[in-house]
Design brief:
The complex is a heterodimer of chains A (100) and B (310). By secondary structure, chain A is mainly alpha-helical. Chain A is 59% helix and 8% strand. Chain A has a single domain, classed as Multidrug-efflux Transporter Regulator, Chain: A, Domain 2 (Orthogonal Bundle), CATH 1.10.1660.10. Chain A contains four helices and three strands, in the order ββααβαα. The N and C termini of chain A lie far apart (49 Å). By secondary structure, chain B is α+β, with helices and mostly antiparallel strands. Chain B has three domains: 113 residues, Helix Hairpins; 83 residues, Urease metallochaperone UreE, N-terminal domain (HSP40/DNAj peptide-binding domain, Sandwich), CATH 2.60.260; 97 residues, Urease metallochaperone UreE, N-terminal domain (HSP40/DNAj peptide-binding domain). Chain B is built from eight helices and eleven strands. In chain B, the strands form four sheets. A four-stranded mixed beta sheet of chain B has the order 6-7-11-10. Chain B has a three-stranded mixed beta sheet with strand order 1-5-4. Chain B is elongated, with a radius of gyration of 29 Å. Classes of the chains: A mainly alpha (100), B alpha+beta (310). Chains A and B meet through strand 1, helix 3 and helix 4 of A and helix 2, strand 3 and strand 4 of B.
């Protein structure tokens, strides 16, 4: 087993093309997610779009949900919102678990 | 090699029709999808379900699989398919989600017909995606961790074997859950002279006995003694970033939340630590301690149940 030197970078900002490659998706699909408000890129024009932090995670999750479960964009948008809500509730719940 | 009972995985009978199999798969995929189900076993289970469906949805693969018969009796050292089990079947290779490696059983039986790569031109290799669980402490200080990867490798004769490799991953200081670490050139090899793809690792935090991360903030329960709660004062709290002083207010209550600005995960801006106070009683074991508590019970006019009425 060969060990390679660590060479890691953190993914912070992706252009539209980068995001498409990252998610193995096409531009039309990403644009649909933007239109549904799932992704919020910075920049005024499509060419200057920059996807950061939360948008990157959401895009990847959206792609998996779409691909694995066949959920359409509106459904993905709803699922992501509900998942984020659930995670916030679970975190809150965890705060009270230790106090009893 | 371990035998996989794909019908059992999907919870259908061996005589199930295509519609039944599809329905069972969809239901299980929803239940165990790793983005939806946060349970520890969900991801492995999801992979099993996908692998089973990959075989049973395809009439050719399913027929070949049925030829294998049932699981051999227990006690035999691993499973190996009978010779010529697949004669008369031709598989079209479609690959699973992310083209990730399935079990050895699947890779050996169903993914052997891949043609070795090469040919004309050069193209970049595909990116690989994976997950890495990071300790909260590592995110504070940065660290290097070894990650084991298992990926199918196509040999010169077209056979597929699963190969383990270990790569060193630098965990950057201040990394947070949901962020991605990119390892350039660690994805799938390129075609011809093309460069290899990249490996992207989605970061999540390993469950921690003390800290509950929320973005860059960390939450924890901070035990304090009854006298610390009553009298207030400084306590020293160990954190992954070093010891910090925390001022407990007088008459502190259980459940009261203290914020330590900038003491959470590093970054710009750094996160905060939220300590929820929890008053803990000492265990009374000596006569002296008992006498002390008896004195308190006599001398302190305190009815903790006053607000219950009655």
């Amino acid at each position: 087993m060969k060990k390679t030197k660590p060479h890691s970078t953190v993914v912070t900002t992706l252009s539209l093309q980068d995001l498409c490659r990252f998610c193995q998706a096409d531009e039309a699909w990403v644009m649909e997610l933007v239109q549904h408000g799932v992704l919020e890129p910075k920049g005024n024009s499509v060419e200057s779009w920059q996807f950061m932090g939360r948008s990157i995670v959401r895009a990847k999750k959206a792609r998996r949900l779409n691909r694995d479960l066949g959920i359409n964009t509106a459904g993905v948008a709803l699922v992501l919102e509900l998942l984020e809500e659930r995670d916030a509730v679970l975190r809150r719940l965890a705060q009270y678990d230790g106090l009893s | 090699m371990e035998f996989k009972d794909y019908y059992d995985v999907l919870g259908v009978s061996r005589g199930a029709d295509a519609a039944e199999i599809k329905k069972a798969f969809r239901k299980l995929a929803r239940t165990y999808h790793p983005d939806i189900n946060t349970g520890a076993e969900a991801e492995a289970k999801f992979k099993d379900v996908n692998e089973a469906y990959e075989v049973l949805k395809d009439p050719e693969r399913r027929a070949a699989y049925d030829q294998l018969g049932k699981e051999p009796p227990q006690g035999s050292a691993g499973y190996s398919p009978p010779p010529g089990w697949d004669s008369g079947f031709a598989f079209s290779d479609s690959g699973g989600p992310d083209d990730a490696a399935f079990s050895e059983f699947f890779e050996t039986l169903f993914r052997r017909d891949r043609t070795p790569r090469g040919g004309m031109g050069a193209a970049r290799g595909a990116d690989s995606h994976g997950r890495i669980e990071v300790a909260v402490e590592d995110a504070f200080t940065g660290a290097t961790r070894q990650l084991s990867l298992r990926s199918p490798v196509v040999g010169p004769d077209g056979t597929v074997t699963l190969k383990n490799r270990t790569i060193a991953v630098a965990i950057p200081k201040g990394i947070g859950a949901g962020q991605h670490i990119r390892l350039a050139g660690q994805g799938e090899p390129g075609f011809g002279q093309g460069p290899a793809g990249d490996l992207f690792l989605e970061v999540s935090f390993a469950p921690h006995p003390v800290y509950r991360p929320d973005g860059r903030d960390l939450h924890l329960d901070l035990p304090i003694a009854p006298w610390e709660a009553a009298l207030g004062g400084q306590v020293v709290m160990p954190t992954p970033g070093g010891k910090v002083d925390l001022r407990i207010p007088r008459n502190a209550r259980t459940g009261q939340k203290m914020r330590l600005k900038g003491k959470g995960l590093p970054g710009t801006p750094a996160g905060d630590i939220y300590a929820t106070l929890k008053i803990v009683n000492p265990k009374v074991e000596t006569a002296q301690a008992r006498a002390f508590f008896e004195k308190m019970s006599k001398e302190m006019p305190f009815d903790p149940r006053a607000h219950l009425g009655g």
